[in-house]
Design goal:
By secondary structure, the chain is an alpha/beta fold. It folds into 3 domains: about 5-305, Metallo-dependent phosphatases (Purple Acid Phosphatase, chain A, domain 2), CATH 3.60.21; about 320-510, 5'-Nucleotidase, C-terminal domain (5'-nucleotidase,  domain 2, Alpha-Beta Complex), CATH 3.90.780.10; about 515-690, no CATH class. Helices cover about 30% and strands about 20% of the residues. The protein contains 21 helices and 24 strands. Helix 2 runs parallel beside helix 4, helix 17 (about 550-560) packs across helix 18 and helix 17 (about 550-560) packs parallel to helix 19.
């Protein structure tokens, strides 16, 4: 039965006091296991069939056996998106993964959206060879009946753990919608269905209640996030989550409907870590396992499956001279990338369409420089999407762009990577955010019909592109990965070259700050936003005329440099907290001669930076990177307040002036002691990035 949480802390405190006083009495006795007699839940999510990842299924089995040997009761759970992704899964339509999970000895799994990628009929087939339970309380057939078991109670060392499965309603659009036609995810009754199962588990005597859900924490998943649903439930102890690829190192406490604590856990993606929940008496804790502990039998099974398909995976199908950016955020879900450009260009090339659009979420990873093998290409485009064309009006094409960018600048799987067109996202607006759309250099004509190439996932309404589903398919042109190979081979001469070194300027994302719309520094502030050097003070406000602090300026320089500050654990300044957001950057800048304090062991991080301080720090940074003053040099400055420039700042002001990074005010003054505003800093750093006088 559940116990009061306060009890354990009192017992532990007494036990610790006792052990400190009587350690010698047990010196000859073996240390008891930290998990002996406890319930250990090992959990994975979003493995996406990466069976040979950092840890992988062999380590899940290894750690399972370890804790069993430590006399713990062990359950092994998966929160979805396991059965599809890499060739080892796709070539067997998921069966190889089920075989491996059976060998691990999983207890239960809930289906994620990508587990439906082979169609519901195939998932039902796979469930029949699973030696573990597939649970979902909200996935129902046309009659409203649960397709899989909604929930189940499991024995765990004499105590019982009730587990209820939850599948995301986003599956409607985050698998091919045709894969779930005739089935429902009961989005409006989701919490009620889960609560019904929780109540039943409690009535049946469950000591602990665990939700095993594939809901996630992404903003685009509102109102179906795990945190949204927890707030509508009571009786839940733990929520093991997936979908958003979030890594929660020690879990996250979320309040339920009654104000009670629920431990939310998620372990990232691709088995880079294994989640671990420990239930011991009245305490429930979460952590991540990152150390491999391979089980030989499971590893041998994986190796045998991989060896069978390896010759096909190793086949070189293309080459690239540059890295192709398939990162998630920032990346294909937030902005134009060179891989997004390449993929869209391939769709347009293979189909001969006027324009092309493909969802960023369909691009799953980055392509490294060198040979591109089939295996790598399949990991980038794992869904087997087909290239299709439709004839669409300009009005609906605009609606598609509006839909795909509605979350910008936040990440969204529907973010449209495009070819044959360009557009701006004015993310500070609530509606009409997509502006200045050009089709092959000409303004979009809302009345005109254009031939659009896309993939068959978005065409049938995937990622919510319902407006595309209104049009009949006019052509089908094979798989996306095949189109990419053909485009590289025929269109690019076999190699992706320098023309794709950078994104090609098709998509401009304007910051969401409403207070810069007509500001004189708007373009420079936009550059800071795009370069991720510094951001607004809120989601919609930049406060361009507010003063910049010393700590913030040093932090921006550190971000500009890409400085790794993780190794700094102490500061030479009495007023700098090394653990704060700026602490490591101040220490980095100090060690490298970029900044100094104000005397008396103080840095004054919260003090507003002056223009002469800023000029000096920027000049010192230029020296640090080898682009600053060397030898004897000087220039003539014409500011009418030269006498007010501090002697220690004269070289900095002179150099920054010479490079045109900083200029004076309209009245001819430099204003050395004036505080630099956030807008001024944006302009100065934008000039620096552009090379100014270089």
């Amino acid at each position: 039965m559940k116990r009061q949480f306060k009890f354990l802390s009192i017992v532990m405190a007494i036990a610790m006091m006792f052990s400190l006083q009587f350690t010698y009495a047990f010196a000859e006795t073996a240390e008891p296991s930290e998990t002996a007699g406890s319930i250990v839940i090992l959990h994975t999510n979003d493995v996406h069939s990466k069976v040979d990842g950092a840890l992988g299924y062999a380590s899940v089995k290894g750690w399972k056996d370890y804790y069993l040997a430590e006399d713990a009761a062990v359950l092994v759970l998966d929160a979805g998106d396991a059965l599809h992704g890499y060739p080892i899964a796709n070539l067997s339509r998921g069966e190889n993964i089920v075989e491996i999970m059976n060998a691990v000895g999983y207890t239960a799994m809930t289906p994620g959206n990508h587990d439906f990628n082979y169609g519901t009929a195939r998932l039902i087939e796979l469930s029949k060879i699973m030696e573990f339970d597939l649970l979902s309380a909200n996935f129902t057939d046309a009659m409203g009946d649960a397709v899989f078991a909604p929930a189940k109670i499991y024995d765990a060392g004499g105590e019982s753990v009730g587990i209820v499965g939850i599948s995301t309603p986003e599956t409607y659009t985050k698998t091919n919608p045709l894969n779930v036609t005739g089935y429902g995810f009961n989005e409006t009754e989701l919490a009620a269905l889960v609560q019904e199962q929780i109540d039943g588990l409690i009535a049946d005597g469950a000591d602990y209640i665990v939700a095993l859900g594939h809901l996630g924490l992404d903003q685009e998943s509102v109102p179906y996030r795990s945190t949204d649903i927890i707030g509508q439930l009571t009786g839940l102890d733990v929520f093991i989550d997936g979908h958003s690829h979030t890594t929660l190192e020690n879990g996250q406490i979320v309040k339920d409907k009654a104000g009670n604590d629920v431990l939310l856990a998620q372990a990232g993606t691709q088995a880079k870590a294994i989640g671990k929940i420990v239930i011991e008496d009245d305490a429930i804790t979460a952590s991540l396992i990152t150390e491999p502990k391979d089980d030989a039998a499971v590893k041998a099974l994986i190796d045998a499956n991989m060896a069978e398909i390896q010759p096909m995976l190793d086949e070189v199908v293309a080459k690239t001279d540059i890295e192709l950016d398939g990162n998630r955020d920032p990346g294909v879900r937030t902005q134009e990338t060179n891989l997004g450009d390449l993929a869209a260009d391939a769709l347009k090339y293979i189909s001969g369409a006027d324009v092309a659009l493909t969802n960023g979420g369909g691009i799953r990873t980055t392509v490294d420089i060198g040979d591109i093998t089939y295996g790598e290409l399949n990991s980038v485009f794992p869904f087997g999407n087909l290239v299709v064309t439709i004839d669409i009006t300009g009005a609906d094409l605009l609606a598609a762009l509006e839909h795909g960018t509605k979350s910008a600048p936040a990440a969204s799987g529907g973010f449209p990577q495009v070819a044959g067109m360009s557009y701006e996202i004015h993310s500070y607006l609530d509606t009409g955010r997509v502006r200045n759309v050009l089709i092959n250099g000409e303004p979009l004509n809302l009345e005109k019909t254009y031939t659009l190439a896309t993939n068959d996932f978005t065409q049938v309404g995937g990622d919510g592109y319902a407006m595309l589903a209104e049009y009949a398919v006019t052509g089908m042109f094979g798989a996306l990965d095949e189109a990419l190979v053909e485009y590289i081979d025929e269109g690019l001469g076999g190699t992706v070259g320098s023309s794709y070194a950078e994104p090609q300027g098709r998509i401009v994302v304007l910051p969401p700050y409403r207070d810069i719309i007509s500001h004189w520094a708007k373009d420079s502030i936009t550059t800071m936003f795009e370069e991720r050097l510094f951001f607004g003070v809120s989601a919609t406000s930049f406060q361009p005329d507010a003063a910049m602090t010393r700590a913030m300026f040093v932090t921006v320089l550190g971000r500009l440099h890409g400085a790794d500050v993780s190794g700094y654990n102490a500061s030479g300044f009495d007023d700098v907290d090394i653990a704060s957001w700026y602490g490591g950057y101040v220490e980095w800048a100090t060690v490298n001669g970029i900044v100094s304090g104000i005397g008396g062991g103080m840095f004054a991080p919260a003090e507003e930076i002056t223009r002469e301080q800023m000029a000096t720090m920027l000049t010192n940074y230029c020296k640090y990177i080898g682009k600053g003053p060397q030898g004897l040099w000087a220039i003539q400055m014409s500011y009418n307040d030269l006498d007010k420039i501090s002697p220690w700042a004269s070289d900095g002001v002179m150099f920054a002036t010479m490079k045109s990074y900083i200029t004076g005010y309209p009245d001819g003054s430099f204003g050395p002691q004036a505080n630099a505003t956030r807008a001024e800093v944006s302009v100065i750093l934008a000039r620096f990035l552009a090379g100014a006088s270089e």
